[in-house]
Write a structure and sequence with these properties.
The complex is a heterodimer of chains A (678) and B (559). Chain A is of the alpha+beta class and 678 residues long. Helix content of chain A is 51%, strand content 16%. Chain A has four domains: 12-93 and 206-282 and 562-677, no CATH class; 106-139 and 141-190, Calcium-transporting ATPase, cytoplasmic transduction domain A (Distorted Sandwich), CATH 2.70.150; 298-311 and 447-549, 3-Layer(aba) Sandwich (Rossmann fold); 316-444, Calcium-transporting ATPase, cytoplasmic domain N. Chain A has 24 helices and 21 strands. Chain A is elongated, with a radius of gyration of 33 Å. Chain B has 559 residues and is an all-alpha fold. Chain B has a domain at 2-269. Chain B has helices spanning 2-28, 34-49, 60-83, 100-111, 121-124, 127-157, 166-191, 219-228, 249-273, 277-303, 307-311, 329-342, 357-369, 378-395, 411-437, 439-442, 449-464, 479-508, 525-540, 544-558, and strands at 202-205, 211-214, 403-404, 407-408. Chains A and B meet through helix 8, helix 21, helix 22 and helix 24 of A and helix 14, helix 15, helix 17, helix 19 and helix 20 of B.
Chain lengths: 678, 559
Amino acid sequence: MSDKRKKSMFSGPLVAGALKASVIKLNPAVMMKNPVMFVVEVGTFIVLLMTLFPGYFDAKDRIGFNLTVFLILLFTVLFANFAEALAEGRGKAQADTLKRTKKEITANKLLSGGGTKTVPSTELHKGDVVVVSQGEMIPGDGEVIEGLASVDESAITGESAPVIKEAGGDFNSVTGGTRVISDQIKVRITSDPGETFIDRMIALVEGAKRQKTPNEIALNTLLISLTIIFLIVVVTLGPIASFVDIDLEVPVLIALLVCLIPTTIGGLLSAIGIAGMDRVTQFNVLAMSGKAVEAAGDINTMILDKTGTITFGNRMASDILPVGAARLDETAAWAAISSVQDETPEGRSVLEWMRKNGKTYETAMADGGTFVPFKAETRMSGIDLSDGRQVRKGAVDAIRKWAIAQGGSVPEDLGAQADRIASEGGTPLAVAVDKQIFGVIYLKDTVKPGMKERFDQLRAMGIKTIMCTGDNPLTAATIAREAGVDDFIAESKPEDKIAVIRREQADGKLVAMTGDGTNDAPALAQADVGLAMNSGTTAAKEAANMVDLDSDPSKIIEVVAIGKQLLMTRGALTTFSIANDIAKYFAIIPAMFMLAIPEMDALNVMQLGSPLSAILSALIFNALIIPLLIPLAMRGVAYRPMSASRLLSRNLLVYGLGGIVAPFVGIKLIDLFVHVWI
Amino acid sequence: MDLLQIVIVIGILVLIARPLGHYVYHVFSNESNRTDRLFGWAEKPIYALIGLKHRAGMGWKRYALSFIVTNFVLVAVSYVLLRAQSGLPLNPNGIGNMEPTLVLNTVISFITNTNLQHYSGETGLSYFSQMAVIMMMMFTSAATGFSVAVAFVRGITSKGKTLGNFFEDFVKAHTRIFFPLAILVTLALVALQVPQTLDPTLSVTTLGGAAQQIAIGPVASLESIKHLGTNGGGFFGANSAHPFENPNGLTNVIEILSMWALPAALPFMYGRFAKSRKHGWVIFSAMMTLFLVFLVVSYTAEKSGNPALNALGIDASQGSMEGKEVRFGIAQSALFTTVTTAATTGTVNNMHDTLTPLGGLVPLGEMMLNVVFGGKGVGLVNMLMYAMLAVFICGLMVGRTPEFLGRKIEPREMKLIAIAILAHPFIILAPTAIAFLTELGKGSITNPGFHGISQVLYEYTSSAANNGSGFEGLADNTPFWNITTGLVMFFGRYISMIALLAVAGSLARKQWVPETIGTFRTDNALFTFLLIGTVLLIGALTFLPVIVLGPVAEHLTIR
């Protein structure tokens, strides 16, 4: 995880901006969007009128009290606005950094008749081709169609090490605003102005397009109904009390109302959501919607590619084994020839093995040959020599079929050798020339450290992990056992992933997966949470609902944790807010009636100094708890992977019981202060 | 002795509730079972008569429409019969027609299973009306509530679009539950000397030579369904305090168990439908815990007597016997009161108006919650609604969006639940405030001070919870009270029923989420505790201010 863009929660300019915004947000038209706080604002306004025009309301002797109530209510609203503004502000600050990279870039557009023309990047459209040379900014999102270059993507990823981008394959996508630091490439633009990756990123972190998630909408419904219920309670209390000749003052009723409605969660709800998105962004993952982050918390099944996610994937040739009548030297030589033009880590590792073991081969044989790249369909690669012979290395069963198809026979010990390698967790690559199979290359793969513990944690959370690999079943089983995943799919093709996702989804499970290639795109789209690698193709990024800027596929696990943390924070603060009501009742109810019914003092369990100080103390507590909880809302509640029952017990103890007890203590302490003045 | 009486009754209840719940499950599971052979013969002609051939499943909208239309037809028929009762047969005492607003109040009261009575049975109704209107609606309203509860449970526990067939449920509720049980209870009551006759009022000469009219009639049969159907409308104005309705301790126990057994059995039926008996136990335990708390408050408050009288030096060893029957004593009265308002029956064997303030708080509180066992079906449905709320609020704390029985609780469900939780306090508090604002309302209040508040609050709470008991001190047979309580009973019954049926319909259509170790568990003791907490925080805190102004203030000022 990159810490470069992490900011402290309360840096100076951020707070200043949020303070200003919290006043601007007092505009009733804006407040309406948050009905709970809107009710508080209306109450504030009524008390303000009573303070300003006491004669009109027959409240001349209550100016001091009313003014105090007004100020506390005003601060309650301001605190809630501040929480939201602060959360938004952090996103805005991030967006500003991004916007700086967008400043006027000029592009060398390739004209249809040849030659280039210099145009501003904002005039580039889908399909245009531009030439970008060393030191220039890439003017827009696109695909490299010619050349190879190293590109500095630190503007979006925060990672300063340059990455290689080249035409063809899965590393051809480039992002506007990044800088070419060597060589020259031709890029075909794939997005229209205003729709580039950076544009979308800015919109996301600014929260401009933030839509409420279904869970937020449902929770809001509950909060609004609680508000209406307490509105009914307070409005009807006046007439009912009048029967026993108790005259309840309007500011006192408003104080009761504000204390009872869920202002704490109402004030912090949107901040929690924005901060949750922000945590994902700080983690260098871009979530296309808040819904995706919540879905991450709900995940039941996680589909992980073996290579790159679970294992390092640098599958190194560690041995070469001849089969049948072949000798070691000729097997090694053919393995090397098949790898001469192969730039994959496997291919290079074969040549490396040759060098280390002092083996030689005729390099000239490969001259003039055509390289046959690896394809998921054929599952082999190699070279067609200029003399017509075809050299191949690849998955054992693929090579076996290939040799048989040409009329060759399969050496008897091939299967045994391959199985042995696979059972040891390695990957066997068979080497063949036309119809003769010479031997196998023993590729070793290692599981990343710490993966087993992470899968144990996922299991504790009730998440099933499925490993996808192109390896044969034996290899897959070995790695699966070593890594501790629950299930695996061996010899999987891209369409297998989609089938697994559909099967899991049919059982009602939510599925997460990572991917980077174009052929992952359908599965990424089908999955409930699809995390695409930034290094991947545009198609994959378009299909996914999250993009990892660091291109680290194992991050999906942390994304799930962030999703869960977001939901837990929301639940914890809701529970806390509702549980607070008990203490507030015990502060205000006796205070309201104590003058008319002195016996009510029996309910004054906190022994608050006087009715007035009791009401004010409850109100002050109610206001102060919002800023006090802002750090928690922003950071999220502490989360460690464990079973739901244990999580619940722990959170209930802290936020449920804490929610009942804290206000008793808080109100009593505030009352000790307030009572000195009243 | 007191304690023993209470423990035995509760013990019997716990023993019969579970098997009864399983029986009810078999009746409504729509899988063939032994109850078919017993009752199938009686149902076939009924189905043939009402043209119910296929008994196809209904979506929630059709189900709701069916029960509303059925109820409406029954209301219309009843209205006509009551307005014309003087000219109809079986009127040996020559009782006249009923006044229109009183008829309106009465038919709504009985079709909504409330049985709030602004009339007095012995002088206001002919035998024919007692049987064709009152008893008929006692059966049908109970069967309606039962059917809706079953449909709700089906919706939240099964996959598919339908909640069952209302007419089939409605018929089965009669033929397999209410008729057989009513016959058994009637016979038991008749054996215990409850009258069952069509003879007119007896005129006797007392030992002192005075002429006395003794009202009798088909009491036992009404008494049985009155309790089984958690109806509560008495044959006589004095209800189950009347010696002909409830002559002795044994009939008292039978009546308590009759009204309590079916509501207590429903959680177990739900457990069977949910294919997890633990779920049934969770709901039952939550209800029982709340019940025991209320019972303890009621019993101790009544047992310690009226502080105002105690202060005068009057012997308080018997407890507060004002308004209670000597043959029942404190234990049987407190238990009856707690059960009748828990199960929202509304039958009374003592006058709730004369309960001590805290003793009076118990029935009031139980009706405000309306989940402590609750009336025919409604209690279970309400409790399950609170279970969804508990899941919604606390479920997030396990880091997943809330799920109940494998179904996500989403905005649509929350909106519908919001309607239900909003309606209840609104229809209690708003009319209460209106009553205090108008002379029409205030004129009927017979007590000044805090008790007056309790009287009005009790009347509307009883109406909203479809309980029907009253603080009888309120002079409530006036157009103002007839119309306002009529409306409250109507909305109290139908708003939440329809909203919650819609919830069930929506949940039935949802994709199930499989249960894992990461799932919020709703079948353990912790959830029982959470459920009780949610009921108290959402349901009870709403009413705290008025409770404080009524019973609590009264208690504090007289102690």
